[in-house]
Design goal:
The complex is a heterodimer of chains A (552) and B (124). Chain A folds into 4 domains: 104 residues, Sulfite Reductase Hemoprotein, domain 2 (Alpha-Beta Complex); 158 residues, Sulfite Reductase Hemoprotein, domain 1 (2-Layer Sandwich), CATH 3.30.413.10; 93 residues, Sulfite Reductase Hemoprotein, domain 2, CATH 3.90.480.20; 139 residues, Sulfite Reductase Hemoprotein, domain 1, CATH 3.30.413.10. Helices cover 38% and strands 18% of the residues of chain A. Chain A is built from 19 helices and 21 strands. In chain A, strands 16, 17, 18, 19, 20 and 21 form a 6-stranded mixed sheet that branches. Chain A starts with 5 loop residues before the first helix and ends in a 5-residue tail after the last helix. The model of chain A has no long low-confidence stretch (mean pLDDT 97). Chain B has 124 residues and is α+β, with helices and mostly antiparallel strands. Chain B has one domain. In chain B, strands 3-2-1-4-5 form a 5-stranded antiparallel sheet, with helices on both faces. In chain B, a hairpin with a 5-residue loop joins β1 and β2. The chains are: A alpha+beta (552), B alpha+beta (124). Chains A and B meet through α15 of A and α2 of B.
């Protein structure tokens, strides 16, 4: 993985010292809350319902062993012993004290982590495929380009005060695991007819109160021109994006009002004026970054591990785990392992310190020290020898991290919701738990197959409800929690925005409603159809009738 | 619901972020110990005093409180959560203390929007 150089390290230390000074001035009364709040937000520190929350950046969801151990230590020392992984591949600590925040930033800086640009109207963490560098599906390693964007966008003086926050995702496989089409900019690596690398550039995607699927404004941007083109997009947005209304300030509103074609034309016009030699990444720098991602230590192995095959045959639990959580690796004899943070009684995306330390140990032993975070709030061990899978599985079982439910009905995205968040209208976590509880039967869950449920506690849509196969939005109806269900959303390569099923339901009605939706699907599905495919074929009516049958 | 004026003053401690309640010039940790205002004048006077303590608390605002058979509780669910802690981790937050007062808050029902907090959000 990419390692910070001396300049990066010095910068993080300086930044941490600066924040320590600012916190000291705030506590001493030299800074007012109005003066201090933007400063703490620039360091990822929010004030939520019960405490401060620190959001730590995990660049493109990639962590090493020392970093995961440090996160575990921070959780134990400064929080209540756990962290919460987010849909932006970051981690949040929900019980932080302002007085401790400078010490936490120091502890993070020692392992090349920080909380810069995890808040505010700037370019946020660039997210990417958690299987980068491990899957044979990818055209190129998207981490290389994500790292280039990270370096370019960190403290970019021109783009630190945009009209609103700005999120970029980079995917390199036909199967999109980054939700690229619902980002401000989605970049999909493509290979040209002549074999050269390029990007399909999608802009104006987003969720929130006005969801849009990103539109392609450039089919094939030569990869070497990436940074100058991003600069052109950001410039057009920075100049023309609305600053008068926070609800209309995201780039999606600009792209929608201008039309993608006109927006693209303005970008081309701006791009033509940019000095490519200044703006684009020199080949030597690209080569330097690329070299940091060459995975050392992969052995030449037979394609199939006999010992693993035998263990799988003898252990039904391992076999189930293998069916749902283990995927093909580009190297023969290796596998990619998804680690679910969605045990049935767990809070989606939470990992406690013991679990984090276990993950670090297991990654050190079995995954070349590499750990990834997914935008679906799970973890990935990307480089596991098949022959190590039985031992890894046992290690995961020991800490409650072997739930075999990746992409299944209980693998639910849920934002922290009203249990923690100052913006939320309703809780999300207990709803996720009630659904998981209802589908405890693992055989039935596997029978149902891929079903992506995503829950947000408010219209800001941190829980991605708009792109859930079943989306659940918490609303405040005269002070009571209600839930609005949507069907047919997708955040993947077949992206779409879900449509509202019908009147809102109270908390107790949600899991039974999901059950009825699933029963309709099981009765109607043809062949290998997923829930989403069946919905797209038969439409809303049968699902709606099943859920609201008692209302007639 | 009666039209009785019944409010408490809440905020978060600056240095820690903890939820606190006003009680006779002090900040206390538990809602059960909060001073209840039955008239607007003293309530607003307490708000003014709280705002004059920017080194101690942030985001001070009044919340609506209701009486029932179980006792007094914040009207809005959000404020009851602030007074208790998250429902997914019953060992975290103020609810960890347990006891009759916490149980009464947990049993409280009825709901309304948190008007004090809405005002706060608008001001931001």
């Amino acid at each position: 993985m990419y390692r910070y150089d001396a300049i990066d390290k010095e910068f993080l230390t300086d930044r941490s010292n600066e924040f320590r000074h600012q916190v000291g001035r705030r506590l001493a009364g030299e800074l007012s809350e109005d003066q201090f709040k933007p400063l703490r937000l620039m360091n990822g520190l929010y004030l939520q319902l019960h405490a401060y929350m620190l959001r730590v950046c995990i660049p493109y969801g990639t962590l090493n062993v020392a970093q995961v151990r440090r996160l575990a230590w921070i959780a134990r020392t400064y929080d209540k012993g756990y962290g919460h992984f987010t849909t932006r591949q970051n981690i949040q600590f929900h019980w932080v004290k302002l007085r401790d925040a400078p010490d936490i930033l120091d502890a993070l800086a020692e392992v090349d982590l920080h909380a810069i640009q995890t808040s505010g109207n700037c370019i946020r963490n660039t997210t990417s495929d958690p299987r980068a560098g491990a899957t044979a599906e990818e055209i190129d390693d998207p981490r290389v380009w994500s790292e280039a964007i990270r370096q370019w966008s960190t403290l970019h003086p021109e783009f630190s005060y945009l009209p609103r926050k700005f999120k970029i995702a980079v995917t390199a496989s036909a199967k999109d695991r980054t939700a690229a089409r619902v980002h401000d900019i989605g970049l999909a690596l493509r290979q040209g007819r002549d074999g050269t690398l390029g990007f399909e550039v999608m802009v104006g995607g987003g969720m929130g109160r006005t969801p849009f699927i990103g539109q392609t404004i450039k089919e094939f941007l030569p990869a070497t021109r990436l940074l100058s083109y991003l600069e052109a997009v950001l410039r057009v947005y920075n100049r023309a994006g609305r600053r008068d209304n926070i609800y209309k300030a995201r780039i999606k509103i600009l792209v929608s009002s201008l039309g993608a074609e006109e927006f693209g034309r303005q970008v081309e016009e701006e791009w033509a004026q940019i000095d490519a030699a200044r703006a684009d990444l020199p080949d030597t720098e690209l080569a330097r970054i690329r070299a940091a991602f060459i995975q050392p230590g992969l052995e030449v192995l037979p394609a199939v591990s006999d010992s693993y095959e035998a263990a799988r045959g003898a252990n039904p639990a391992l076999a189930r785990f293998a069916r749902n959580n283990v995927s093909a690796h580009k190297a023969p004899g290796y596998a990619i392992v998804d680690v679910s943070l969605k045990a049935h009684d767990a809070t989606p995306g939470d990992a406690n310190s013991d679990q984090l330390e276990a993950i670090a140990d297991l990654a050190e032993r079995f995954s070349l020290g590499d750990i990834r975070v997914t935008h679906e709030q799970n973890l990935v061990l990307p480089h596991v020898k098949q022959s190590d899978l039985p031992a890894l599985f046992e290690g995961l079982v020991a800490v409650g991290l072997a739930t075999p439910n990746i992409n299944l009905v209980s693998d639910i995205i849920a934002c922290p919701g009203l249990d923690y968040c100052a913006l939320a209208n309703a809780r999300a976590i207990p709803v996720a738990q009630s659904i998981a509880q209802r589908f405890l039967d693992a055989d039935r869950a596997e029978l149902v197959g891929e079903l992506k449920i995503k829950i947000s506690g408010c219209i800001n849509a941190c829980g991605h409800h708009h792109v859930g196969h079943i989306g659940i939005l918490g609303v405040d109806k005269k002070g009571e929690e209600y839930y609005q269900l949507t069907l047919g959303g997708s955040g993947a390569e077949d992206a779409s925005i879900g449509k509202i099923l019908g009147p809102g339901l109270n908390a107790d009605q949600v899991a039974p409603a999901v059950d009825r939706l699933v029963e309709v699907y099981l009765a109607e599905r043809q062949g290998e159809e997923r829930f989403l495919d069946t919905y797209r074929r038969i439409g809303m009516t049968p699902f709606k009738e099943a859920v609201y049958v008692d209302a007639h | 619901m009666s039209a009785e004026f019944l409010k408490a003053l809440t905020a978060n401690r600056l240095g820690e972020g903890d939820v606190v309640f006003w009680s006779g010039g002090q900040w206390v940790e538990q809602f059960a110990d909060a001073e209840l205002f039955t008239e607007e004048g003293p309530a607003e006077a307490a708000v003014a005093l709280a705002k004059a303590q920017p080194r101690i608390v942030v985001d001070a605002y009044l919340i609506d409180v209701t009486r029932s058979d179980q006792g007094v509780a914040p009207v809005s669910y959000r404020e009851r959560l602030r007074a208790l802690g998250p429902t997914n981790e019953l060992g975290h937050g103020k609810q960890a203390l347990g006891g009759a007062a916490i149980a009464a808050l947990q049993a409280a029902s009825g709901a309304a929007r948190s008007t004090g907090r809405l005002d706060l959000i608008r001001r931001k």
